[in-house]
Structures are given as C-alpha cells and as structure tokens.
Design a protein that fits this description.
This protein has 2 helices and 2 strands, in the order ααββ. With 98 residues, it is mainly α.
Length: 98
C-alpha cells in the first residue's frame, strides 16, 4: 500500500504542475489581453466609452507573470542541459549542482 500512496502523491503533483503551467499561463495571458481591451475602452457597437487605466496595470501584471513563467521554464531546461538543477530552497530560484 505504501507504493500506491507514493505513486498517487507523485501523480497529484504532476497533475497540479500541468494545470498551473500547461493551462494556467495561457489563462493568465488571456486575462491580460482582456484587461488591455478593458483599458482601451470602446463598446461592441463602436461607440467610444470611458478608458480604464487600471486595465493597463492588470495587463502589465499578467504579462509579467507569463514572462517570468517562461523564463523559469527556459532556465530549468538550460540548467539541466549543463548538468545543473534549479533549487527553490530560497526566496528566488537558484541554479545548483546536481
């Protein structure tokens, strides 16, 4: 039973990571694009409406999160290519020897 619990624990972690990285980043990107459209104002009928500056702030935050996720992914791939690993033992990820 111990092996089954270990396998279930590993499967749960893989599922969570795939949801966050596989579907989470595109969702955050889509929310950023929607926030940018909200910032620009306008309506479906073409009539001008009020602009919303908070949309630009939300857009910048969403795009920043997506870019950090992409940079982290590239860092993990490159580090493993050089025989290193990325450690999350500190506040920010660091590259360490395996």
């Amino acid at each position: 039973m111990n092996n089954l619990a270990l396998a279930a624990d590993g499967a749960w972690k893989v599922l969570l990571a795939s949801l966050i990285l596989g579907a989470g980043l595109p969702v955050i990107f889509a929310l950023g694009v929607r926030a940018r459209a909200y910032a620009a104002g306008g309506a479906a009928d073409g009539q001008p409406t009020q602009r919303h500056p908070v949309g630009n702030v939300l857009f910048a935050l969403c795009i920043l999160v997506v870019l950090l996720g992409v940079a982290l992914g590239i860092t993990i791939i490159v580090a493993s290519g050089f025989g290193k690993a990325v450690s999350f033992g500190h506040i920010y990820p660091t590259i360490v020897s395996k």
